[in-house]
Write a structure and sequence with these properties.
This is Putative membrane protein. The protein is mainly beta and 153 residues long. Helices cover 5% and strands 47% of the residues. Strands 3, 4, 6, 7, 8, 9 and 10 form a seven-stranded antiparallel beta sheet that branches.
Amino acid sequence: MRLSHFLALFAGTGLMATALMGVEARADFRVCNATQNLVGVSIGYRAKSGWVTEGWWHVNASSCKTLIEGPLSSRYYYLYAEDAEGGGRWDGKVNMCVAEKEFRINGVEECLSRGFQRAGFQEYDTGEQSSWMVQLTDEAPPETPTVTGTSNP
């Protein structure tokens, strides 16, 4: 059973991101878990060597985790997350490879034949911002998600 979850997007190191989770502002890709359950998160991106997916980061309830440290080098990032306790998912339409345990997978083709699972990742267009934050909540999605941010220096 798939839960209805909302992905609120917050880009940049602005006051909104800092105020939401009480974290210090800096350049990176962060995921904040505003639910009451542990969440497992994986990320996908295009590197110089090709497509890469990495996971799992465990993000405790009401906390944040940095997935990529420093200024972002790509415009598009892809995220897939699972509620470790409730069974819900934050997913999307872009298929990429994941594994049961901690992983770093090169390539997104033929996941099953290579011994991996396939999951639908949500695409985030960071607009070439230096930072991006995704907040996972239990809320239903609004018609237009909130996006704020700062440009690369």
